[in-house]
Amino acid sequence: MYLKGKVKKDKRTKNLIKRLKPGDIALISHKDLDEIAANSLVESKIKCIINTEKTISGRYPNQGPSILVEAGVPIFEVCDTDLFESIKEGETIEISDDAIIKDGEVICKCELLDSKKIEYLLGIGYENFEKELDRFIENTLEYAKKEKGLVTGKVPIPKVKTKMNNRHVLVVVRGKDYKRDLETVQAYIHEVHPVLIGVDGGGDALLEFGYIPDMVIGDMDSISDRCLKMSKEIVVHAYTNGEAPGLERVEKLGLNAVIFPSPGTSEDIALLLAYANNADLIVAVGTHNNMIDFLEKGRNGMASTFLVRLKVGSKLVDAKGVNKLYKSHLKLRHVIGLGIAALIPIIVITMMFPPMKELMQLIKIRLKIMFGV
């Protein structure tokens, strides 16, 4: 295999995706590449990726590599972590079989991760799944003891300007299948006009669909400046000690923000905030709610999510995967039915029009003469 292209590099894949252009070669350092990152890389129409980490380590069956290979995006792995220093952003490199070449010289060896190897590593991942599950459960129970204040009322809820009382609230997280699910609930958004909350990159997801977020919540590490400026209210997720790293970025843009110190994830506090402000119904799109989601997110347990969902469950509707309910295609009988339904009022109106009555009577007489009736 031979490939040539300009390199874009970043050790944080979600930051790199913003700069990628079609035909680029993505240089990443992403262990156990997750589905969200893989889908974003595919959408960027890159030529290939070079990963200085194990794209699939076998710790659990992450599906990111399979998505890339199925989309025709080659994955090359290298053991040399110094490759990031050897190649500058925007430089052109070549990949020839198992070698990475710059300026005519081989600078590093690489290995193509093909479908057979991915299948083999996924098998190991499935074998290790039970061990990971045991560790995950233990961590979840351990953190649950520390984070129980989320449901007992010990975590103070900050005051916000956005009015949610007796309204529906749509919480959007840029998780798996978020685009398809958000597309599916568009009719609901237009009809009900819920309060729109974007969790970090979920704010940009709303903008993609033409909606301006009423509020964005998060640590501000994966949301665009454009979205921050357009959002009506900003809530920065802070550590329990009050430290809020994301606040500096908001202030540099000359914007104001509400600070919400809390354990757990940003999507958890978004649900909690909506519940505390007496939302009538909370609809969640793209949220993380299972073990694989959390392993891909790099979180050891889901204590806060379990506790928060336990509290807000009576008002929560999880729209994740709702797009799969609407996969049926328009069938011929439906088209015929619609056509007949549309013709009925036309025929009735036509028959009521005097000249048409006379014409139909003449046609009737002509038919009687022709058939001797």
Please provide the count of β strands. Answer: 15
Largest sheet: 8 strands, mixed
Shape: globular
The number of distinct structural domains comes to 3
**Main sheet: strand order:** 7-6-5-1-2-3-4-8
Percent of residues in β-strands: 15-25%
Structural class by helix and strand composition: alpha/beta
Radius of gyration in whole Å, from Cα? Answer: 28 Å
Mean pLDDT: 84
Unreliable stretches covering 5 or more consecutive residues? none
> What is the name of the CATH architecture of the largest domain?
3-Layer(aba) Sandwich
Termini gap? 81 Å
Output the CATH topology of the largest domain.
Rossmann fold
Summarize the amount of helix as a percent range.
Answer: 40-55%
Tally the helices: 16
Highest-level CATH class of the largest domain: Alpha Beta
What does this structure look like?
GO terms for molecular function: ATP binding; kinase activity; thiamine diphosphokinase activity. The chain crosses the membrane at residues 335-353. Residues 320-370 form the SteA-like C-terminal domain. Keywords: ATP-binding, Kinase, Membrane, Nucleotide-binding, Transferase, Transmembrane, Transmembrane helix. Pfam families: SteA-like_C (PF12555). By secondary structure, the protein is of the alpha/beta class. A hairpin with a 2-residue loop joins strand 6 and strand 7. The longest helix is centred in the middle third of the chain and has 33 residues, at 115-147. Strands 7-6-5-1-2-3-4-8 form an eight-stranded mixed beta sheet. Strands 13-12-11-10-9-14-15 form a seven-stranded parallel beta sheet, with helices on both faces. It has helices spanning 13-16, 35-43, 64-70, 83-86, 115-147, 149-152, 178-184, 186-192, 202-208, 225-230, 245-252, 266-276, 291-297, 303-312, 332-352, 354-371; strands spanning 2-9, 25-28, 48-51, 75-77, 92-96, 99-102, 105-109, 111-112, 168-173, 195-199, 215-218, 234-238, 258-261, 281-285, 316-318. It folds into three domains: 2-120, Aconitase, domain 4; 154-325, Rossmann fold, CATH 3.40.50; 332-371. The N and C termini lie far apart (81 Å). It is globular, with a radius of gyration of 28 Å. The protein is built from 16 helices and 15 strands.
